[in-house]
Design brief:
Structural class: alpha+beta
Number of helices: 6
CATH architecture of the largest domain: 7 Propeller
Order of helices and strands: EHHEHEEEEEEEEEHHEEEEEEEEEEEEH
CATH superfamily of the largest domain: Regulator of chromosome condensation 1/beta-lactamase-inhibitor protein II
Number of domains: 2
CATH class of the largest domain: Mainly Beta
Number of strands: 23
Largest sheet: 3 strands, antiparallel
Radius of gyration: 20 Å
Helix content: 10-25%
Strand order of the largest sheet: 3-4-5
Distance between the termini: 25 Å
Strand content: 25-35%
Length: about 375
């Protein structure tokens, strides 16, 4: 009987050989015991489509790291912590989506999504990347940040505070939402009043900073080319070019867009007022506001992924441990005891970690969200 094998990501020749050796053993679980780099794959019978579901989770070989930048990239987009601390989204290995927390504006209405390879959550909207290169979105759409239905040929998406960006396979970038200079739809002053009513902690920031962001140019990415990585922040957007340099567009009041001098960058993350970049040698660069030490990452080494939150920064090491720096009022930096982590996401006042077994750990201060996240299983990419 001929079998068709679908894997969650493209396999290297060595991985293919290891998979073949595992499939020759009649016991499905033995394939998982042999592999030390696989995620989950499904084996389907060509005749009756019976699902045998070999479980090939990442395993650490003796003396070898759990992750490298390439394997970490496979997990990027598997879970995302919103700019509020009360919601998060993730994808399961079957390509469906999960969400927990407050469903204001319908931002958690993702249960009908399928065929996903990545998700990203902003302030009040969530975006999903589908395997066919299209995108889906849910949540608040006053500034068009959810209008992504016409996007095609995508390989990555990122949700910012009021905007969404998508990376196309040809290295160009598309964007939707607020932040386009001279946008036809002006800023709605009533929204500022509602924001300050619902989030009184934001009253510490000048109203001019909030309103100016809507004309900051964070969606001015149409001229970008040869991009391999994108990240949408609060009022700015960052891209990594094929040659290892970085570009940024948007509000630069605190120097968060001052990335033109960076080199050897392979990934980047845009936060609230700061930006972090991952170098190919495992070190990290940072730019922008550093009031809480969120940019003090010069001593970090052996990092394979980074995530910038509102006031803190998280780094994932190759051994599956996590480091964090910045504000820690809600325990968002209490990650030193985490192990076997394959992805990490920083949000407003929390940090999420995806474990190699597909479960999630979190520092989220909301008890209900923390409880819901603890029940998640089988989280991870299926590409």
């Amino acid at each position: 009987m001929k079998l068709t094998v679908y894997t969650c990501y493209p396999l290297s020749p060595a991985e293919k050989a290891e998979l073949v050796r595992g499939l020759r053993n009649p016991k499905p679980e033995s394939a998982g015991s042999r592999g030390n780099t696989f995620q989950t794959c499904f084996v389907l019978s060509a005749s009756d489509k019976t699902e045998l579901a070999y479980s090939l989770l990442p395993r650490r070989a003796a003396g070898k790291p759990l992750l490298n930048p390439e394997s970490a990239r496979r997990y990027s987009g598997t879970l995302s912590c919103g700019y509020d601390c009360d919601y998060a989204v993730g994808i399961q290995r079957d390509g469906t989506a999960l969400a927990v927390g407050s469903n204001i504006y319908g931002r958690c209405s993702v249960s009908g999504w399928s065929g996903l390879t990545a998700v990203s959550s902003g302030h009040c909207h969530a975006v999903g990347l589908k395997a066919d290169g299209t995108a889906v979105a849910a949540g608040w759409d006053e500034y068009g940040q959810c209008r992504v239905s016409g996007w095609t040929d995508l390989i990555a998406v990122s949700a910012g505070h009021y905007h969404t960006v998508g990376l196309k396979s040809d290295g160009t970038v598309v964007a939707a939402g607020a932040g386009v200079r001279d946008a036809a739809q002006p800023f709605n002053p009533n929204y500022l009043a509602s924001v300050l009513r619902d989030r009184p902690q934001l009253s510490r920031f000048p109203a001019s900073e909030i309103t100016a962001g809507f004309a900051s140019g964070m969606c001015d990415v149409s001229g970008w080319a040869e991009i391999v990585w994108i990240s949408a922040g609060y009022w700015h957007t960052v891209g990594v070019k094929k040659n290892g340099t970085a570009v940024a567009s948007g509000r630069n009041t605190f120097g968060q867009c001052a990335v033109s001098g960076w080199s050897d960058i392979i990934a980047a993350s845009a936060g609230f007022r700061h930006t972090v970049g991952l170098r190919s040698d495992g070190t990290v660069a940072a730019a922008g506001w550093n009031a809480f030490g969120q940019c003090d990452v010069s001593g970090w080494t052996d990092i394979v992924a980074v995530s910038a939150g509102i006031w803190h920064t998280v780094g994932l090491r190759s051994d599956g441990t996590v480091t964090a720096i910045g504000i820690n009022h809600f325990g968002e930096c209490n990650v030193s005891e985490w192990t076997d982590i394959v992805a990490a996401a920083a949000g407003y006042c929390c940090t999420l970690g995806l474990k190699a077994d597909g479960t999630v750990v979190t520092t989220c201060g909301h008890a209900s969200a923390r409880s819901d996240l603890s029940s998640w299983t089988n989280i991870g990419p299926c590409r």
